[in-house]
Amino acid sequence: MTSTESSLNSPLTEALIGTRKFFTKAEVSEDGRTLHAIGGRKADAFYRDRWAHDKVVRSTHGVNCTGSCSWKVYVKDGVITWEAQQTDYPSTGPDKPEYEPRGCPRGAAFSWYTYSPTRIKYPYVRGALLELYRAAKAEHGDPVKAWESIVTDPAKAAHYKSARGKGGLVRSTWAEASELVAAAHVFTVKRYGPDRIAGFSPIPAMSPVSYASGARFLELIGAPMLSFYDWYADLPNASPQMFGDQTDVPESGDWWDAGYLIMWGSNVPMTRTPDAHWMTEARYRGQKVVAVAPDYAENVKFADEWVTCDPGTDGALAMGIGHVLLKEYFADTQVPFFTDYDKRYTDLPFLVTLAETERGFEAGKYLVAGDLDIAEATSENAMWKPVVLDSTTDKVAVPNGSVGFRYGDEGMGKWNLDLADIDPVLSLIEAHDEAVTVQLPRFDAPDGKVVFEGRGVPARRIGGRLVTTVLDLLMAQYGVQRGELPGQWPTSYEDDTVPATPAWASRHTGVPAAQIARLAREWAQNAIDTEGRGMILMGAGTNHWYHSDQIYRAMLLLTTITGCQGRNGGGWAHYLGQEKIRPIMGFQHLAFALDWHRPPRHMNQTAYWYVNTSQYRYDTFTADDIDAGTGVFAGQGVMDLLAKSARLGWTPSYPPFNKSSLALADEAEAEGMAPADYVVRELKNGDLKFAVEDPEAPENHPRILSLWRANLLGSSAKGNEYFLRHLLGADSSATAQEAAPDQRPTNVVWPERAAEGKLDLLTTLDFRMTSSTMFSDVVLPAATWYEKHDLSTTDMHPFVHSFNPAIAPPWQAKTDWEIWKTIAKRFSELAHDHLGTRKDVVAKPLWHDTPEALATVHGEVKDWRTGEVEPIPGKTMPVLAVAERDYTAIYAKMTSVGPLMDNVGMLTKGVAYDVKREVAILGQRNGVVKGGPTDGRPKLESDIQVADAILHFSGTTNGHLATQGFRTVEKRTGTKLADLAAEHEGKQITFADTQIQPVPVITSPEWSGSESGGRRYSPFTINVERLKPFHTLTGRQQFFLDHDWVQGMGESLPVYRPPLNMTTLFGEAPIGTEADAGGTRSVAVRYLTPHNKWSIHSEYQDNLFMLSLSRGGQTVWMSAEDAEKVGIRDNDWVEMVNRNGVVAARAIVSHRMPEGTVYMHHAQDRLIDVPLTERDGRRGGIHNSLTRILMKPSHLIGGYAQFAYFFNYIGPTGNNRDEVTTIRRRTNQKVVY
Fold it and tell me: pLDDT of 1091-1106, one tens digit each?
């Protein structure tokens, strides 16, 4: 008899079970295991009791879910029992389906977490650290000195850092844990400066109050917040490149309005489950639905047509379609609907110079007013006013609307898209002086290197310069021949040797050429028939690649040249993450403490970790290698380019300098100099350096990282094993070799050995145990979404609604707001003896939507370090500002509204707002602080007050501000706008309103679309209907980009760039290579990490219900063909290995998968059913253990019109889909844990 059997069948157990007959009138079975009730309603009492409840509370979920569904949470006897969908959404009107049904199985399973075995109930501290801290505090008395004694002692620091990830978390108290965290922050600010501290919390739209709780504290002390959208690789850089805006997309209800819908890399039924019904319902209206996917994905079965495009080749497919559109609807014939749209809303008619180089003529820069001898040459911002050729006069004209009209007095009333009497010439084909052969790059050669080939464009001389139009260049780029223009042209659609014919696209994508041509004609005819109601849903399948910007630019060409952008039912529809926080203005100002200090510190997370996890040291290639040998970056590494970008003020870099930002202010004061002047002097004489130029030096390390609402080490950490080694000092499975001497950066210090364990403190706030908590030093128990007040918005629908606590946080859990208040209060107390009031020198990049974006004329790169220009803050280097921080008043400031709101106002997307009225109302509503450093300021003490303030300070939820904002914009545009919000000028959405039901938002300058009159939201409708310019150089949607780096990379126009060649860059085996080592066969495959049906979006992978519905634990999907090659059967244990790490998982062998590709869905934590690997005997990794950071240089550009930094607007992404791995069946299928 086993011990288990013994315990279950002992006399004591049988006696206890036997007593139940004394406590029920029901019949007890002979074995005592069941009850039988006969007659009346007693038989269904169990069922009725199961669904009985005391109250129903409205709440929602917050896991990066664009559904943002409102839920009923049922509570009985103080216990959450289940949840169900709310059905009281605002109506879409009589001519459309309603928002419900909503919800999904993942959301319906969330309440499991409240009482799950993974729930974090108490504060925990790593045992090795806690012992050291208690001993140090007993010795020193002062918590700050205690912390100092630990982290400055190499032996002590190594002792607790090496224990990370190996268990050993022990229960502590709130007082002790919060004091340790606060003391670490105080010491770090005092010793290194506040910019050695960082915070990461993603996607504020899913719970902005919770996000703001930590962000507000960190920004008040001067610590940077790390971005999320670019880090997740959800950010499409093509959006700012083309629109000058980031991810403004249609709500899902607008899918209904489309006449033709393409799902391209977006698996809507799986990742946008609550909204997928719009797609299926619209088919009954006659809409054609096309799915582009390499696998038989869930959305394919709903489509009318499946386009099977090979992974990563979507750009070639889009160019093949574009070739047909340009030839048949622009070259062979002209469609007035298209040409009228393109003349006004795109840069196609703008003139571009042709520059003569050693290769021949190439596309140069936009021709601008300041280049010419015309009246406008002496106007304000003349170098920022591109020109067109007017067909009426046959002379150059300067149309309104370019960025040169956006700033300065002369542009008032002229920043608009009104062409007046100008009729721009789209092409010079009928009005050219000569034909010029232009050298155009292509990147589809077998060796992956760039090749140039010549094709002719019509040109004429204007002002001594040879020029053509953007459309003419585009025709040449796409291989569309007209007349007798010289060059290498395709002979027909069947010619596969020249881009971008259908046959050429077919050769790269596997899609039949005839299908490509037919799709193009269907798309164009639909756009003509419906006047632009063609829509492309885009997602991770196309955006998570290294060259995703080029994929997107080729796709956006299809929606734009056919007049689909800015239309209901038309345009791009990019859905990745719950990115769109509609009340963005109020959120930004409160979350980043802009009511107390400006500017904030914001950091691109991809660049941050590329540096601080030392991944740059494993770049076994030069910048020229990864750019296919274009030569523009010859002799430099990617790290050199990042250092230059930081030095020129293009991209943020924290810490910025190798000295404390507080010390710099002190030194400047001692010298009697302004801090900015002092920093410039020290940089010029070499006594001060940028930290990014010596990242392994201890003074430049990040010291503290706080995570909340985030699972960095189980979800988003590209290059996970490098995080473990270099950031945390823990065990790592990476085997990559560091760069050889000839592959290393030339302007960055390279010590012989990279630092390990850079981080002194990792703190995580969470309600469940994750990979991140397992490596954390302090773990604090957070409330779940059913235990707090907060807000929820998304890009998928135009309403805002609320989180509400169904129960109080159980055990010792607290809401994020209360946790950070606790830390802030203790920090303020400790600061009295250690910090006081200090001046802080803040370096920030040149921002988008400000005059700082006019820093780089013609996009010509000039470096002050080499003497080409002088270092001028805010022009040729970062902006240098000074903030005075009273560190003893952090808690007081965190819990009140600061005076900058009244004194300076608010600014969002370049629009200024006067909010004195709003501040006064908030003071009346919340009360004001009595006494202390924030005397008289409106209170922000509770989470409800914060939520209310976010709504109060946002145009989308405050009609007074929306109308005021539009009136401000009207002065600049000279066009009518305020009426868009005037119907709601008196409307103020409060948090109490959102508790009743979801509330529709108000049309506001914060976004480019309109909901006025109850229409469905679609982006850029204000631009198209009200002639408001796009936030780009030309003020139009831009196909042509003329920054030096972009042009040098061969990407001025959309071009097909295949997935990176990992064999060339890292020595990985080519895809399809089979090997036999020790009797075990392996095959090299493309490694992709798409969304998981059973986790992410309202749920995590470790939920018992979801694990029961799926295979449980980590799995990898592979094709039957690849499985047969290496003898893998369904459900076998396999290992995947590359230079970055190793993963152990079960194989799902499926005919749905294409040969040569495997899927390991994110985010599969390593906590559930992950065995030790055969390769190294350590626990297997996560999906990101086989990935690493690879940054694209063009994403580092700044200071040039739409190429200018803003938080989560532009920047390098955490892309990971170009990766490859080998996969094999494990020798021993009896795994060990």
Answer: 888 776 656 888 888 8
CA distance 301 to 1069: 34
| Tens-place pLDDT, residues 153-162 | 999 999 999 9
Residues 991-1045: tens digit of each pLDDT: 999 999 999 999 999 999 999 988 999 999 999 999 999 999 999 999 999 999 9
Asked whether the CA dihedral 369, 371, 372, 376 is positive or negative, the reply is: positive
Q: Which of 367, 365, 425, 415 is nearest to 395 (CA)?
A: 425
Q: How far is CA 1201 from CA 243, 384, 416, 557, 844, in A?
A: 11, 9, 16, 20, 17
What is the Cα–Cα distance from 692 to 646, expressed in whole angstroms? 8
**Cβ-based neighbours of 138, under 8 Å, separated by 6 or more:** none
Contact (CB, 8 A) for 231 and 72? no
Provide the 8-state DSSP code for 327: I
Count of C-beta atoms within a 10 Å radius of residue 978 = 17
Sequence-distant (6+) residues with CB within 8 A of 1145 are 1113, 1114, 1115, 1116, 1133, 1134, 1136, 1160, 1164, 1170, 1180
pTM: 0.96
Measured distance CA(241)–CA(747) in Å, rounded = 29
DSSP notation for 272-305: SGGGHHHHHHHGGGT-EEEEE-SS--TTGGG-SE
Instruction: Count the neighbouring beta carbons within 10 Å of the beta carbon of residue 735.
Output: 14
Q: For residue 792, give the nearest of 782, 802, 783 by alpha carbon.
A: 802
Looking at residue 328, the DSSP 8-state letter turns out to be I
Alpha carbon of residue 966 to chain centroid: 28
Q: Which residues contact 525 (CB under 8 A, 6 or more apart)?
A: none
Where does the pLDDT of residue 4 fall: very low under 50, low under 70, confident under 90, or very high at 90 and above? Answer: very low
905 pLDDT exceeds 90? yes
Q: Residue 880 burial by CB count (10 A; 0-12/13-18/19+): exposed, middle or buried?
A: buried
> 174 vs 130, 197, 778, 1212, CA distance in Å?
13, 22, 11, 38
Nearest to 688 by CA among 668, 706, 705, 670: 668
Q: Rounded CA gap, 535 and 250, in Å?
A: 9
User: What type of residue is 546?
Assistant: Y
d(CA 77, CA 80): 8
Question: How far apart, in whole angstroms, are the C-alpha atoms of residue 646 and residue 236?
Answer: 21
> Which of 10-19, 97-106, 560-569, 874-883 has the least mean pLDDT?
10-19
Q: Are 549 and 278 in contact (CB under 8 A)?
A: no
From the CB of residue 53, how many other CB atoms can be counted at a distance below 10 Å? 15
DSSP secondary structure letters along 478-539: TT---TT--B---SSTT--SSTT-HHHHHHHH---HHHHHHHHHHHHHHHHHHTS-EEEEE-
Query: Rounded to an integer, what distance in angstroms lies between the CA atom of residue 904 and that of residue 39?
Result: 75
Q: CB neighbours (10 Å) of residue 138? A: 9
Q: How many Å apart are CA 1086 and CA 1160, to the nearest integer?
A: 11
Distance CA 289, CA 190 (A): 59
154 contacts: CB under 8 Å, gap ≥ 6: none
Contact criterion met (CB below 8 Å) for 51 and 796: no
> CA–CA separation, 1009 vs 1003, rounded Å?
7
Could you say which DSSP state residue 746 is in? S
Hey, CA dihedral for 130, 132, 136, 138, is it positive or negative? positive
Query: Which pLDDT tens digit goes with each residue over 171-209?
Result: 999 999 999 999 999 999 999 999 999 999 999 999 999
User: If pLDDT is split at 50, 70 and 90, which confidence band does 39 have?
Assistant: low
Check residue 1098 and give its pLDDT. Answer: 56
Length, in residues, of the chain: 1233
460's enclosing H/E stretch is: strand 451-462
Return phi, psi of residue 515, to 5°: -65, -40
